[in-house]
Structure formats: C-alpha cells, structure tokens
Amino acid sequence: MTDAARFALALEQMDGVGRVTAGRLLTHFASYEALRAYPREQVLARIQGAPRAEALVGRLFDAAHMQPRFAEADRQLADLERRGVAVLTAHHPAWPPGLDALPRNRRPVVLYAYGHLDALARPVVAFLARPPLAPEPFEQAQALVRHLLPHGIAPATGAAHGFDVVVHKLAGGADPPAPSLLVASCGMAKAPPRMRPAISAAVHHGGLFLSPFPMNHGPFEHDDAERAAVTAALARACVFVEPRPGTPEGHAMDWAMEHGRPVFGLASDAHTLPSAVHPLREPVDFDWVLAAARGTP
Q: Fewer CB in a 10 Å sphere around the end CB: N or C, the chain?
C-alpha cells in the first residue's frame, strides 16, 4: 500500500500532471515499479489524450527526474506516519469504493485519513446541510441521527460549521459512543479551529477525519464542492437538509440522484424538494433511511 501512496505523492509534484492523468496512471499501475515494468508505448497508450502525454512518459522513465520527487514523497509519508495520518489510494483495502463513481475531476487521487479506518467499513449515511437552517428540519435531522446510531450507522458530514458539530456530538454522546466521519474542504492542518474539538472527539470515539487535499492546502471556497461530493460518495444513503440549488450540497444531491443513490430530504416545505428525493415528513419515515443504509429494500 505504501508503494501506491508513494507513487501518488510523487505524481502530485509533477508539473502538468493533474488529477485526471494521475488517476488514470494509478488505476493501471499500483506502483512506480509496476509502471517501469511496462514498455513506454504501453504506458503511453494508457494515458492517450492526456496533455503532453509523450513528454510525461519520458519524464516518468527518467530516473534522475523522478528521484527527487520520490525523496520528497518519502519525506511526506514519514511525516504523515508520525502524525498518525494514513494515505489511501484506490489500491488500499480501506479505499471507499463509492469514490470510484465520482467523475475523474472530482475523484481524489489520495484520501488522507486520521483516526479509525474501520469506520469506513460501517454503513454510512451522509448528512449535508448549509446553514442557516429552519428549526424544524434541523430538529428532524438530529432525531434521524439518534434513530440511526443504535443500528451501527455512521453519520458523515463536512467539517465546517455548527450543524456538523451537532451531528458528531450526538454520535459521541450516544450510549455507547458511536463512530462518525468528518470530511474537510481543506488540508487537515488547515481545519477550522472551531471544528478541532469535534474532530478530536469523533476520532476518540472510533471515528475518522478525512480530507481529499494535501495537509496544508487551502482553505479555498471552490474546494467545498469537492468536500460535498466526497461526503456523498462515501455513503450508502444521503440526507440533504434544506438543499438549495447551486450550492455544493445542491450539486452533490444532483450527483447522488444521477447515480441512483438513495436520496432523502428534510425541508420546511417538502414540495421544494426534487421529485427524485424521498421527503422525510414524519419519524416513521426514518426507517426508509435505515433500510437504504443497510442495503435492504
């Protein structure tokens, strides 16, 4: 697994290697050594259409060019290991398979993970919201979290605002405390200070803090769309609280509907939800979310 992570971090340092090209290379080659075992022509065929593909393949086979990039990748991996951060790629056994449904330009090449990787093996329900929220759907969302926790469901949210904090406090305050997942819209080292107690508590209770961005990346407002997409892709079912078109949550909802994910909505006026979104009007409806998370009809 370290070989794939090392290759991924080296690719991130190469000029002209964007997410799409790096993702294609890592799909075909689990390590740099695996790539070098192929003729150049076959490597080129696997990234045909990438910008300046021939020049890129030449650099990949140039040991002098790659050596400092791998040296830096090794330094990063050692530093991340000291911090307790795992580096997941598509070849890692803990890689969430739902991420593979994201378009290449939204799919992380590397997913940084701090905490308990086994939380990813639980059924996950994503809760996506953007304050301000009306009191009724906000209260309903909390009631739904409480309903799901005793059944082994792990809630997943962003790592930005009060709604996220409330969800993770509910998980940590359950008896026994339940794991939960937080997804950052920046590098882990740049997590908002107001979120750090919630992140620490979630990890303490068996949860996981995730980021699709390098440790010191951001924060940048445009990255919030990727955070929402990754959160939705981690989950077996998605709950959107007062979703609004044009927001990161709205785009994530569109993606989830297009890809056949079970999508549920909490809103002051259920008629504002798209027809493909299952409205949650009463507590009795919560069992629909539970069934979707369990993968049962």
A: C
